[in-house]
Amino acid sequence: MVLSTGTNKIKTAVFISGKGSNLKSLIKFSKLQKSPISINLIITNNKLAKGLKYGVIFKIQKKIIQFINKDVAEKKILNELKKNKIELICLAGFMKIISKNFIKNFKGKILNIHPSLLPKYKGLNTHQRAIKNKDRYSGCTVHFVNSKLDSGKIILQKKVKILKKDTPGSLAKKILAQEHKLYPEAILKIFNP
Ligand code: GAR
């Protein structure tokens, strides 16, 4: 495995709210020579987010910004992004909806990963809804973020088969394993087409 120093790479911030397993996979990817991005900042709205530990392990700066007032929170985040010269944002299990105004500041430079085959199942409880509808497949999607929830241009998708015995929990686990591969692949697709 070839490691690079991270200079000259696209400075990226990852936004998380929970476990941060996608953050971990993005950090690992960012350290490969083929990665066009470096992860320079972790932003969370949740001071208890388990994923914050990856900031400690990999020595990446992290900022906890609570969303008591969305306007104030977003201004603080934009400030941090500017201070750190961030050029790309990867939402990875970030459970707050960001405003149109925020998106305008980073137009075409915000990516998201969503646990369904969009345009199916925008929003929450995607696995429950796919199983309830007796879908044969679900999956995950990496897309650009625009002002409509989970509706921006799709970059890549991965299908995952739903088995009769699957529960929302078992399906989430299978899909998450694919998410860890899909997010890096989508970033490679954008920057090394
Ligand atoms: C992932 O499955 C991600 O797709 C989903 O939250 C999980 C976060 O896991 N995101 C959304 O539902 C966004 N609407 P992680 O914290 O272990 O990366």
Can you offer a commentary on this structure?
- With 193 residues, this protein is an alpha/beta fold.
- The chain has a single domain (6-191), classed as Rossmann fold.
- 34% of the residues lie in helices and 23% in strands.
- The protein has six helices and seven strands, in the order βαβαβαβαβαββα.
- The chain has helices at 21-30, 53-57, 70-83, 100-105, 126-132, 168-191, and strands at residues 10-16, 37-44, 61-64, 88-91, 110-114, 137-144, 154-161.
- Strands 3-2-1-4-5-6-7 form a seven-stranded mixed β-sheet, sandwiched between helices.
- The mean pLDDT is 96.
- The structure holds glycinamide ribonucleotide.
- Glycinamide ribonucleotide binds at residues 16, 18-22, 51, 92-93, 113-115, 176, 179.
List the helices and strands and how they pair.
Layout: E1 10-16, H1 21-30, E2 37-44, H2 53-57, E3 61-64, H3 70-83, E4 88-91, H4 100-105, E5 110-114, H5 126-132, E6 137-144, E7 154-161, H6 168-191
Parallel strand pairs: 1-2, 1-4, 2-3, 4-5
Antiparallel strand pairs: 5-6, 6-7
Helix pairs in contact: 1-6, 5-6
The chain binds glycinamide ribonucleotide (GAR).
